[in-house]
Amino acid sequence: MKEFSFSDLNRRSGDVLDAALAEPVKLMKRGKAKIVMLPQEQYERMRDAARPNEQAAFTLDTAPEEDIENLMAGFQEIIDQADREGR
Fold first, then answer.
1. CA 8 to CA 82: how far, in whole Å?
2. Mean pLDDT over residues 1-11, rounded?
3. Integer CA distances (angstroms), 13 to 33, 41, 64, 85, 87, in order
């Protein structure tokens, strides 16, 4: 993994960004890694690998039962509140 200082980023941003498009790049400050820049595709692969069983959205047919129960409880709370307020 290539390393660049924050000063390098200011002076040679094109070189740093070109490197980050090809592979992860560490940005160093006072000799310590502070930021890692990486290509979008690699980030997405890492993100997706970190939560392989998570689904971004559900339908009522595919939602976990606990989510449906929480949703229904929330709806009931809204209805009860409206009834108390006479709406």
1. 59
2. 93
3. 17, 21, 46, 59, 59
